[in-house]
Records
---
Amino acid sequence: MKPDQITILGATGSIGESTLAVLAEHPERYSVYALTAHRQADKLLDQCRRFRPRYAVLVDSTGASTLAAALKAEGLSTELLVGAEALVAVAEAPEVDQVMAAIVGAAGLPPTLAAAEAGKRVLLANKEALVVAGPLFMEAVRRGGGALLPIDSEHNALFQCMPPGYVAGQPPAGVRKLLLTGSGGPFRHRDPTTLGAVTPEEACAHPNWSMGQKISVDSATMMNKGLEFIEACLLFATPPSGIEVVIHPESVIHSLVAYEDGSVLAQLGPPDMRTPIAAGLSWPDRIDAGVSLLDLVAVGSLTFEAPSFERFPCLALALAAAERGGLAPAWLNAANEVAVAAFLARRIGYLAIPAIIDRVMKGATLAPAESLDAVLAADREARRAAEALLPIYAA
Ligand code: NAD
Ligand code: MG
């Protein structure tokens, strides 16, 4: 069998590296077509040495000439492409079978959408792309005729628990409820009066998962669960009333599907993204992900609680956006991206994140998400609105 050709968008990130770790175990099944990075040229060079892709893409031109020279000097046949348009080219190239969408934020939308339109098998980690483009993205997947495999651990779990032969984007038969689990992040028990002084380092110290900075902050505010709620509505063609968020601090059950007959199916595993990545790559086959067996005795007990919307206002804001639909999720996501970046840059405090998103959402002009242009315009407008609020909340 000819190996599948894989493009990894966001190869130098946490998901990108975990994907390469799985691919490295199965060279007979997969070969790397393209690896992309925003500006980490050194890391990208190292990945090119190890995986010999046909193309490497660097979005930021700084460091590109040094990288091109290094590739040449080392006798690597990898060709370097520069700029955001090159992301689209390596996502939709006819040689490509599967595209791992692992860029962080709405910046990943154009190449991920291009992969869907081109009928690729899209492995979706980049939840923001789906949240922003919503039904337009799902429509692109249908038009393209490829497949959409959820990689976010919760959605991969839900997908695995769906009826046999289930295809993402269709309403699942016989299902009563989707139960979306979340750990509650590092501040589940923290005294709320001390949250104002939280540092980026504290917010990024997730108790169970090691991830990129943006999603780590989103996990602390639980905006991550909110984005995942919207993601689940879209992936599984389910209204907000059909999804429930449950706090499960151990991160062992990655989500559950409750059926009409009272059966509840769950997917369990160690908190390691190589599992959903391997499941997505090989589905419906199974391959070794290099993950050790879950030790239930060592885990001991699994606990559950209801989420607190007072403690996690970002979760409430996201559920409200899910209810409003249309362009509301695009506004929510853009405001969150601006606020989280400002928090990570120490320009605003932690509690300014929900405050800014709330104010942006109150001023949002919410039309239906009719076209990609409308979505991109909403994204730009929301970013401007959030940026304008930053000085008011300056740390
Ligand atoms: P990360 O910050 O570790 O990596 C992000 C990658 O995207 C890097 O390769 C970076 O070079 C690239 N990138 C950043 N900005 C870019 C831009 N403007 N244009 C092009 N490329 C850009 O992030 P991550 O933790 O790997 O997360 C990636 C995506 O996967 C996010 O959407 C996140 O929500 C989702 N996700 C991550 C995890 C996890 O465990 N890390 C779990 C579930 C879902
Ligand atoms: Mg997740």
Note: The longest strand covers residues 30-37.
---
Amino acid sequence: MIFYVLTIFPEFFYPFLEKGIVAKGIERKKLEIRIKNLRDFTKDKRRTVDDYSFGGGGMVLKPEPVFLAMDEVNKEFKNKKRVVLLTPQGEIFTQRKAEEFAREKALVLICGRYEGVDERIRETLITDEISIGDYVLAGGELPSLVVIETISRIIPGVLGKERSYEEDSFTQPFLDWPHYTRPREFRGKQVPEILLSGNHQEIKKWRLKEALKRTLQRRPDLLKEELLDKETGKILREVKRERRLG
Ligand code: ADE
């Protein structure tokens, strides 16, 4: 998968591409990140990318640099692609959305800045508008990184065999279970006996139950019984019963 990023801060991205999961994906040739500096697509000496909002207000990203950068992207990658504007006005980004994007061959991420972007960019170039949450950042660069990392982990072969994407929180419709590592006792706190038992069947059930308890407590909105398989549904009912009694 190729990620194109259109930004006025390309330097934000480089450290991120050199470490961690995205670097692994690039090294394993599963992904490619192509960063376009919007200032390279300006024609004036001062490399202006923003201008005053007509009618009054703050600064707005000008259309020309974005359109010219998109022309170059379209020359490099001719097939159909999703073009995503990162904006607090967008649809909230979720794991399901990331899975949908992960099926694309290329994704263009346009990092908005200032008070907004010229509406003609929206009308003409954009296929999707995405927000990473109900808060306002200074621009779309951090949200782009969030989107890139989330999608990268889904692309087969990026995580490698040592980690399974399927077991993550949010891949399943509930939160993760508690994890423990050595030592068995730490400051008087013990690792639950069951995890040391070697009984894989029982461990699996315990984990599922703890995950459901945690989800019920913290994010009941995630738990839709119709999305759970038979065994999980049964354990959920058990957890609910215990909660009522407890
Ligand atoms: N730009 C500024 N805030 C944002 C947010 N929450 N999500 C996506 N893009 C943004």
Note: Residues 86-88, 112, 131-133, 135-137, 139-140, 143 surround adenine (CB under 6 Å).
